[in-house]
Amino acid sequence: MIFYNIKIKTICIISIKKTQQLPSIPIKMTALYGGSHTKLIQYKVNSTTNIESLQRNTSNVEKKKLRYVWLKNSLYTNITFARSLWNLIDQNNIIKKMKNNNPLGLSLIKHQIDINKNVHELYYCYCKEFENILQIKKPIWGRKYTIVNSNNYNIIIQEFFSPDIVL
Q: What is the pLDDT of residue 151?
């Protein structure tokens, strides 16, 4: 597998459990939104969301899957960078059959898969690669969360948002 490696410099990591104790920190709606991020992008920018996969599968790893993608609007403007680690429990699971160019949230909705989504951390960070790709010179927001389906898989996801999508 060829991996896309981005070095992100963290300014601040906020534990979700501590956000109630820190009322002066602005918590962005995008970072806390509990539904499909792809649907949120479609609502915010009023266009379809496209996926650009940043790695190629060169071998088949049975129980783990890494995925690096850019979510883009219909004009192919980068909106969100996401990286995920998938731990597949059931080898016959539908997640294994999902294609890298399909949005995860929409695929779960389409296949009517029940999940639990738990946001663990919010990030306020910067990254030279993001500055070049997004053509911005300011910090960005991100989040880390898990998606769990006890019978089939669990997925750890980190997402970093373009300032254009942050509400």
A: 67
Q: Is the pTM of this model over 0.85?
A: no
CA distance 59 to 65: 10
Query: What's the rounded Cα separation, in Å, for the pair 107 and 49?
Result: 13
Whether the Cβ atoms of residue 151 and residue 128 lie closer than 8 Å to each other:
no
Quick: pLDDT tens for 106-153.
777 777 777 888 888 888 887 888 888 888 888 888 888 888 876 677
CB proximity list for 42: less than 8 A, separation 6 or greater:
48, 49
Res 98 pLDDT > 80: no
Q: What is the mean pLDDT of residues 31-58?
A: 67
Complete domains list, the chain, with CATH: 9-161 (3.40.1410.10)
Residue type, 64: K
Within a 10 A sphere around the Cβ of 119, how many other Cβ atoms? 16
